[in-house]
Structure formats: C-alpha cells, structure tokens
Amino acid sequence: MDLKHRSRALTEGRDRAAARAYLKGIGYDDEALSKPIIGVANTWTETMPCNFHLRALAKFVKDGIKAAGGTPMEFNTVAISDGITMGTSGMKTSLVSREVVADSIELVTLGHLFDAVICLCACDKTIPGTVMALARLDVPGVMLYGGSIPPGHYKGKDITIMDVFEAVGANAAGKITDQDLADIEAAASPGAGACGGQYTANTMAMAFEMMGISPIGPSLAPAQDATKSDHAYAAGELVMDVLRRGQRPSDLITKESLENAILAVAASGGSTNAVLHLLAVAREAGVPLDIDDFDRIAESTPSLCDLKPGGRFVATDLHAAGGTAVLAQRLQALGLLNEYAPTVTGKTIGQHAQEADEAPGQEVIRPLDNPIKKTGGIAILRGNLAPEGSVVKLSGHERRHHTGPARVFEGEEACMQAVTSGQINPGDVVVIRNEGPAGGPGMREMLAVTAAIVGEGLGDSVALLTDGRFSGATRGFMAGHIAPEAVHKGPIAAVREGESITIDVDARRIDLDVPDEEIRQRLADYVPPPTMTRGVLGKYAALVASASEGAITQR
C-alpha cells in the first residue's frame, strides 16, 4: 500500500509549491513532507477535567508517529462537559457536540488529505463523535481514550461525581449539612480524567475496545497512571502499523463487532447512552443495527461487573483487575463473543480474550458461576407510551414493575424544583417531556433530577420516564429515550397529571392507562412549546432523527 495514498496530492509536484511553502514556514521540512501525514484529532479543552490532559498526551502520540515513520499534524475540535453543564440550558449542547466533533474531524481530514487519523477523546460525546468520524472517513484510524479519573475520598470511602449530585438531593432533604455537601464537592474529582464509574465515558471506552477500533488494555489505562504516556506513544506507533496494514474502520465496524460492543455494555451495567451512540456509529458505517438488538443481546448476557453507579468499584479498579480483556474472556467462555472479529491491534478480539491477565483475587468482574444478575443491565420497552421504543436501565436495582400516578413536567427545571421542594411522593411516576433530540433540543441528561430523587430517599419508590436521556451515573427505575418524542406528537405528549402509568420490564411494555382513541385525540390537539429555530441548536432540531435511530443528523 502507498502510505502517502492521500497526502501526495497535497505535498508533491510543482503545482504544490505554495502548499509546501506554507508548511515549511511552520516547521515541516522536505523530509517531514515526504512521509505519510497523520492527523492527530484532539478534543483537548480547559473547560473540564475529562479532556484537560489530552493536550499533553498528544505530544507522546506524535512522538510515536514520528518514531514509526510518519509526520503528525495535530488539530483540535470542540468538547462539552456533561457533568458541568448538567441541569442548565448548556446541557442542550452536549449531544449536539457529538455531531460537531464528527463533522469537524471529517472536514479537517478531507481538507488536508491525511493518510491516517488517530483520535484522542475522553468526555462522553467526544468518544462516539470521534468513532463516527472514523466510520464516515474510512481511512486507516485509531481511537485512543484519555482514561478515567481516580476516585476521591471522603470519610474513608471512595466517592465519584455521582456522590455530589446525590448529595444535593440529600442536602435539600435536610439529611446532610451544607458543610457535608461542600466537603463532598471538594473531594469528588481529584484531577484530570473522565468520571470514574461505569458512566457513559467508561462505558463507551470499553465498548469501543470490544468493538476493536480502540487498542484493548492501553486505551482504558487511567488518566493519571504513570504508564499513560507510554501507551500514548505506542498508540502513535500503532496508527502507523494500521496504515501499513491498510486496515480501515470498515474492516472493524461490522455487525459482529457492534454486537460485541453491546455485550460489553450489557455485561458491565453500562450507560443507556450507549444505545444512542452505537446506533449512530452503525448508521455512519452503513451497518444494520436496530434498537431491539440491544434487548436481544442484553437478555442473554449476564451482568458481571460490580461497577458504580450500581456497584462498588470504579474504572481504575476495573483496569487493575485486568480490564476489558477479562470481560471478553468471560463472554468468550459463554459462547457469546464474536471471537473472530478483528481489532485495530491486528489480533482478533478472541485472541485478546485468551491473553487476558486477570489480577489474582480481583472482585470487580464476577466469575461466571456468580453473576450479579442473570441478564444484562438494559432493556428496550415499547407500549402505547413508546411505540418506537424506550431504554430502561436495570443495573443497580431490582425493580421490574411499577404502577403509579403521573407527575407531568414540561422540561427538567420544573421537575427539579418539585423534587427539591418535597413535592414528589413515593409511588409517583415522574414524566419529563419536551426534552427529546428535537424538542429540547439536544436531549438533555437528567442526572441532576434522578440523583436528587435518590438523595431525597425516593430512589426505591419513584419511577421516572422522559423523552430526554440519562447520565451513565443515573441509578433507579428510569425509562429514557421515549420515542417518538413529545414535540413530534409522541404519546408522551398525551399524559395528564395523575393518570396511571405502568412500567413492566418482563412484558417489555410502558403504558398509559388511557384508551387509544383518547390518546389519538389528545395528540391531534397537542401544541408543543416552541423550540430553537436558529443557530447550531436550530439546525440540529431541524435535522435530527429519532432517539430510536441514534439521534443522528444524517440519515
């Protein structure tokens, strides 16, 4: 394979003298321009801890590329912090940023004719955004995860950012003091790295290791681990190896590898956001994947990882236990793993599973004869409230059925006010609507609300459903991604205060106790609140597909 298969058109020949002049002026000499040009797509930002360290990490990636015979060119894209924007209007931009990340990497790579691309990511939407870009471009590429933050410590216990969100509800309920809240706040996020539990960032990092687009093991190394710079250097060398082998994302992103990714999500108790992101990646890659595939796989996959938010451990513990490869080994032993799926390392996922190095006595990943649950951590529910589907998280609690009166809120802020002022009662079904991909717009996460419900002591008695989505840190009986959404006159728009709603996981249904004809009449009369029509949010609202299709903007 010609290693300069794209960049020759940019750097060679008499007519490219002006381009070379520009590049020489910023330090690229003739030798550098004679080599393959590798795009280093960074998502570094100073607005959050998750991606804060990626600028420094990129240096080691670039050193590895140079040592392996390439010329790196780093460029940056946007990154929005879910945790920092949570509960504000800024959260509307989070899911939208996934599309902008993908678009910008695609544009720079197309414009500058890179021969290969390595993407550095960390916070929730930068991870699928980078992989969506690789799927679109289909040039040799690698995704490297920046790694997770270590846990904080408070009163002798490990804590994560989830504990801060839940402490807000506990403080509002008078269960902890203002000083307790301040102390938890000060301890929960000790430095750089993505949120510590099996929240969305670590869920997607594990899923993409299992899918094969990210190097298994090194990618999940913690952000502050002493080996992280060495892993970054090796990733730079790896992208050159991928280029030499001519391996493309389309070789890796297949139905089999996507099913492996879903296995990882189901077995680890991962974030419901994985449904959105894996559907989006599949569509970018042109691979058929349906929301019901998640239910089929999860129903036959045991929950094996004892990870927060429902369990005891965090991602740094998972890495120390042996990481994704150990989980792959368990799934291979069950005959569930598509073991011949190739990975970016040149080995199959089955080979990586066989080479897993499990720490003696580790308790993070359960043995097969002692699973946390016999089925996976998510389920897909339909019914008269969600004819296109909804996603419910099953990890971290035992509830599978709930019937109660609807408490209806037009948007997150109204609901948060009701929760923190003691207006939600045991048995209620909290309904938050007009927070979907188009109606929000941007499909905000509801961690502030769900954590406040738990902090108020209502986590075991209240259910919540929304056309928005949840954070990976959410726990409790929550159904999100209700589709169609309210702004598109989905049935969630027909719910009225006090009406009975039943969530039945075993029956895979979520239903409003109102006759179908009455629901149809209400929807015909429903006038949704105005949504954004200008700027990036307006563009997104006009273009975005249903959550059941991954909430992507190209169909």
From TrEMBL:
Q: How is the cofactor bound?
A: Binds 1 [2Fe-2S] cluster per subunit. This cluster acts as a Lewis acid cofactor.
Query: Which GO BP annotation is one of this protein's?
Result: L-valine biosynthetic process
Record field: catalytic activity = (2R,3R)-2,3-dihydroxy-3-methylpentanoate = (S)-3-methyl-2-oxopentanoate + H2O; (2R)-2,3-dihydroxy-3-methylbutanoate = 3-methyl-2-oxobutanoate + H2O
Q: Which residues bind Mg(2+)?
A: 82, 124-125, 445
According to the UniProt entry, its GO molecular function terms are: 2 iron, 2 sulfur cluster binding; dihydroxy-acid dehydratase activity; magnesium ion binding
What InterPro entries does UniProt report for this protein, alphabetically? DHAD_IlvD/Edd (IPR050165), Dihydro-acid_dehy_C (IPR042096), DihydroxyA_deHydtase (IPR004404), DiOHA_6PGluconate_deHydtase_CS (IPR020558), ILV_EDD_C (IPR056740), ILV_EDD_N (IPR000581), IlvD/EDD_N (IPR037237)
Judged by the first EC level, this protein's enzyme class is: lyase
Q: Which residues form the Dihydroxy-acid/6-phosphogluconate dehydratase N-terminal domain?
A: 35-351
Keywords recorded for this protein, A-Z: 2Fe-2S, Amino-acid biosynthesis, Branched-chain amino acid biosynthesis, Iron, Iron-sulfur, Lyase, Magnesium, Metal-binding
Q: Where is the active site?
A: 471 (proton acceptor)
> Which residue range or ranges hold the Dihydroxy-acid/6-phosphogluconate dehydratase C-terminal domain?
363-551
**Pathway linked to the protein:** Amino-acid biosynthesis; L-isoleucine biosynthesis; L-isoleucine from 2-oxobutanoate: step 3/4; Amino-acid biosynthesis; L-valine biosynthesis; L-valine from pyruvate: step 3/4
E.C. number(s) listed in UniProt: 4.2.1.9
Give the required cofactors: Mg(2+); [2Fe-2S] cluster
Query: N6-carboxylysine occurs at which residues?
Result: 125
Q: Where does [2Fe-2S] cluster bind?
A: 50
Subunit note:
Homodimer.
- Similarity section: Belongs to the IlvD/Edd family.
Q: What does this protein do?
A: Functions in the biosynthesis of branched-chain amino acids. Catalyzes the dehydration of (2R,3R)-2,3-dihydroxy-3-methylpentanoate (2,3-dihydroxy-3-methylvalerate) into 2-oxo-3-methylpentanoate (2-oxo-3-methylvalerate) and of (2R)-2,3-dihydroxy-3-methylbutanoate (2,3-dihydroxyisovalerate) into 2-oxo-3-methylbutanoate (2-oxoisovalerate), the penultimate precursor to L-isoleucine and L-valine, respectively.
HAMAP family annotated for this entry? IlvD
Name of the protein described by the UniProt record: Dihydroxy-acid dehydratase
Source organism per UniProt: Solirubrobacter phytolaccae
Per the record, the gene is ilvD
